[in-house]
């Protein structure tokens, strides 16, 4: 039984490089975000992130799924620095990035994610959802990143993206592939407060209930969440991970998940292996469990 292994990490919140501040920045949400970062930056550690990446790369996954918030203020300098970090993490064909709300903090001129385009999908300029087929897995990359008002960290997919998602799920399901949906914001009810929610999550859940998917991965909550939403043949698992740079003592410490996906007689079987900071301060296996997606 051939196994395809995917590593899931999220919310690295890379340290911001030196940046020029324009009048537009001063009179925008970026100023409030900078004040928040002064309080929270000690909750994130570049050293922890480097250790997580080293642990992940040592496991040699077939593909990496990164569900957003690479930056803090979505400045051009941060987006460029994040591209250099992505280049060190994995080549574009082995890594898919789903942007987060911090990656789209304020409105931008032109293609804000142009520096990351090779890691968003296989077809440049195709938009979202971006579908990438790797082995038995179809990664369906959504973008919930959108500028919001002060004090909000919400996401939105929009009607067009949700409609295209329905078509993708149907076609990929008919092809017998494992449909893995990537999105930054949680989609299950109660995962985060309304202020941080995906505003059109209900429309997304309706599509998933009708068309189905095998698994949904997200970030944003900075927690290891195991939830589910309704699907046509039973519940669809929805998994989140903590921030990849989070230190112990301020919420959940950094963690990533390895997803070992195989097709068996009963359908697709996914073994989830959680790896994170252990009591000795080193990354180690924290536990594992199995998910079964019934044969269609």
Structural overview:
- This protein is α/β, with parallel strands linked by helices and 296 residues long.
- The protein has one domain (3-15, 42-294): Purple Acid Phosphatase, chain A, domain 2 (4-Layer Sandwich).
- Helix content is 25%, strand content 26%.
- The chain is built from 7 helices and 12 strands.
- It has helices at residues 23-26, 29-40, 46-58, 76-89, 117-120, 159-174, 201-211; strands at residues 3-9, 63-66, 95-97, 130-134, 137-141, 178-182, 215-218, 225-229, 236-240, 255-264, 267-277, 283-294.
- The strands form 2 sheets. The protein has a 6-stranded mixed sheet.
- Strand 8 (225-229) and strand 9 form a beta hairpin.
- Helix 6 (159-174) runs parallel beside helix 7.
- It is globular.
Largest sheet: 6 strands, mixed
Q: How far do the termini sit from each other?
A: 18 Å
CATH topology: Purple Acid Phosphatase, chain A, domain 2
- Annotated CATH homologous superfamily: Metallo-dependent phosphatases
**CATH C-level label:** Alpha Beta
What's the helix count? 7
Ranges with pLDDT <50 over ≥5 residues?
none
> How many beta-strand segments?
12
Mean pLDDT: 90
- Going across the major beta sheet, what is the strand order? 3-2-1-10-11-12
Name given to the CATH architecture: 4-Layer Sandwich
Query: Helix amount, in percent?
Result: 25-40%
Number of domains: 1
SSE inventory with pairings:
Blueprint: E1 3-9, H1 23-26, H2 29-40, H3 46-58, E2 63-66, H4 76-89, E3 95-97, H5 117-120, E4 130-134, E5 137-141, H6 159-174, E6 178-182, H7 201-211, E7 215-218, E8 225-229, E9 236-240, E10 255-264, E11 267-277, E12 283-294
Parallel strand pairs: 1-2, 2-3, 5-6, 6-7, 7-9
Antiparallel strand pairs: 1-10, 4-5, 8-9, 10-11, 11-12
